[in-house]
Each structure stands twice: as C-alpha cells, then as structure tokens.
Structure to design on (381 residues):
C-alpha cells in the first residue's frame, strides 16, 4: 500500500478511536425516535458514476423511511447530474476537487453550519469517512472504520452507528452486490423488503434530432461502450472493432451507437474508418452529457460493456446489457436485472479486484468475439 494512503488510514483510525471514545458518553436513542426527530439528513458519497447510480435505491428507501426529512447529498461535481430531478433528494452539494484543502475547509464549515440531525456514509471511502466523523453529528450511520490493512479483514465491513441503541453488530459482506451496500445501513429502520432497482429521471434531457440511430432506426439498436475506470476491466479495443464489423456484415438492419466520454477516445481511433463508411454506426463518444447519454441508451435495445458506470447507467434506464467481466466480481458489481447476460472466464486469480493485472492469461482477453456476437444474436435475432 502506498505510504501516503497508509498514513491516511492510520489518521482515520486515530480519529475513529477518538470518535468511538466520545460515543461512550453520548446519550443513546432508539432508532424509531429518528423517524420523527430527524428533519435534516446528510448523505456523503465521493465515489464514481456507477456508485452513485447504485446508490439511488438507498436514496429512494431513505426518503420512504424519513418522509418529512430534508435530504442533502454531498458528492463529486462530475457525478452530480445523475441525481438531477431526483424526487428523493432535496439538495445537492457538488464538490469540484476533493484534493483542494481550501474547498475541504469551506465544505466542512458549510456543513457544520447546517447542523444535520443524521449523517449517512453509505460507502467505505477514506474521504467520506473523514468528513462524516469530523462533522461529529448527533446521529450517524455508515462505514467509518474501514481499516482493512490485510486481505483477511477485507471480507466484512462493519456498519457503525452513533447515538443509536443497537442490538449486536451489522455487517456488509464485500462479496455482496454493491446496491445492498447503502441499503444495509438502513437496517435499523427496515420494516419491509427494499426495492433494489436503480433509477434515473430524464424528464428534460431528450435530444432534439438525435441523429439516425433513433429518429430513423429501421432495426435493433445496439450501444457499445468500450471503456472502464480501469484499463484492466476493459475488453481489448481490437475485439470491439472486430465485433462492430461482424455485426454490420451479418445483421443488415442493425444500428450501432458508440457511447462514452473522453476516456473512450482511444476506441475511436480503432473504428474511425468504420464510422466514416457506415451510416448505421453513430458516434456519441465525448459528444453528450452523462444524462443525454442515458437518454440515448434508453432508446436502444441492448448495451455491450464491461464493468463501468455506463453499464450501471443502462440498468437505471431499463436497458438490457451483455456485461463482460474479468478482474471484478459480477455477483458484486454486475448490472441490475435478471435478463442481463454476464460473460466471464474464471482464472485462478479472478476476481482479484486489483488495479494491476498480475495474471496469465489475462481474464478479459479470454472472452472471444464469437461468444459476444452469439449472445447479441440470441437477444436481437
């Protein structure tokens, strides 16, 4: 582990111990009391696109439990659009740069001034844990003591509660689906089965004249997203190129939409000639906002993608997905829904959850163009 990150973990550990000690002197309340007393609730999440999308079931259930509370969420500026028009969130506080100490100080005093009754930290992340503990709220729920210095301690994440009476400990298993990560923090108030369906609200994000793909499509539309947050989760770009060519050659009515942002520009170099020579391929890469990309996905019949935020975006708009998995676990991070297809090849080291591949052969390279093509044909005919 990098020395700076290790130092941050130890600092959090010290802060956690101080908070734990002070919690001994807090007056503990029954969780049910907060149903009426918690008027202002803060949620902290500095994670990426997919993590915010998979947080939406938590936000929906949170609002259902605390019906009269004003719910505020603080998150990264680049993910804030995901929650635009979300009826379960009353206020969004975007943060441009979590590495800017001055922005952190301003954020801290802004949040302290608001005096939230209850703070949720529904993800295990150092920055959100620091902020949650430093605010020293009267009541708090979430993942605070995520110290996980060794692999054997990484399997269970304890949910910490402050100022609340609890019976026994509540844990989230690392192997479980990330949708349940946030929902698990609501266990003290659970009176029914939670809905796990992610959702997005796109009322004002339709695209005027959104090109040939949707406005004049004569056959099934397949979206392709070639990127991912880690290059080791990506299927080789050359394979995507071969797949696009094979779809065009074997399916005369198929329409293909290429989606993504700046990180997917590498793929354009591979398929530039195909785009220029086929009216059935529409390029949206680095051309649309996240919400407009979601709208394009909502008009398609299928998405091909690896483990990525766009894969979860498709789930939120109800688009069926063929998801390609390797170093991450499809059980933990796979798309929501029973009609999706997961293609993965297990090797001894997968899922490794690592950012660097040390395995031979590479698990993503074992996925063949033919098996992806066959899965597409099974769905669209």
């Amino acid at each position: 582990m990098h020395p700076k990150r290790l130092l941050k973990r130890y600092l959090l550990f010290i802060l956690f111990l101080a908070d734990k000690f002070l919690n001994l002197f807090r007056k503990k309340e029954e969780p049910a009391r907060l149903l009426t007393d918690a008027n202002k609730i803060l949620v902290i999440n500095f994670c990426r696109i997919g993590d915010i999308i998979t947080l939406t079931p938590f936000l929906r259930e949170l609002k259902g439990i605390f019906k009269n509370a004003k719910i505020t969420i603080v998150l990264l500026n680049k993910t804030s659009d995901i929650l635009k028009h979300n009826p379960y969130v009353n206020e969004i506080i975007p943060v441009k740069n979590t590495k800017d100490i001055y922005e952190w100080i301003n954020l801290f005093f802004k949040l302290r001034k608001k005096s939230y009754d209850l703070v949720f930290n529904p993800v295990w992340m150092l920055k959100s844990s620091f902020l949650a503990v430093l605010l020293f709220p009267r009541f708090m729920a979430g993942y605070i003591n995520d110290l996980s210095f060794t692999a054997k301690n990484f399997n269970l994440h304890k949910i910490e509660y402050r100022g609340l009476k609890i019976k026994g400990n509540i844990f989230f298993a690392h192997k479980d689906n990330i949708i349940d990560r946030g929902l698990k923090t609501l266990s003290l108030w659970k009176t029914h089965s939670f809905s796990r369906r992610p959702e997005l609200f796109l009322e004002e994000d339709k695209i005027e004249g959104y090109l040939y793909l949707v406005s004049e499509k004569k056959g099934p539309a397949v979206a392709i997203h070639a990127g991912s947050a880690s290059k080791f989760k990506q299927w080789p770009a050359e394979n995507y190129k071969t797949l696009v060519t094979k779809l065009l050659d074997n399916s005369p009515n198929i329409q293909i939409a290429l989606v993504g942002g700046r990180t997917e520009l590498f793929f354009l170099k591979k398929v530039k000639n195909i785009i220029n020579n086929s009216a059935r391929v529409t390029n949206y890469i680095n051309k649309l906002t996240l919400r407009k990309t979601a709208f394009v996905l909502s008009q398609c019949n299928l998405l091909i993608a690896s483990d990525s935020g766009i894969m979860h975006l498709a789930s939120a708009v109800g688009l069926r997905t063929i998801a390609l998995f390797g170093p991450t676990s499809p059980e933990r991070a796979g798309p929501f829904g029973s009609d999706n297809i997961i293609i993965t090849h297990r090797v001894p080291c997968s899922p490794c959850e690592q950012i660097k591949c040390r395995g031979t052969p590479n698990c993503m390279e074992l996925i063949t163009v033919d098996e992806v093509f066959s899965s597409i044909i099974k769905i669209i005919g």
In short: The chain has 14 helices and 14 strands. Residues 3-23 form the longest helix (21 residues). The CA atoms of residues 259 and 285 lie 5 Å apart. The mean pLDDT is 88.
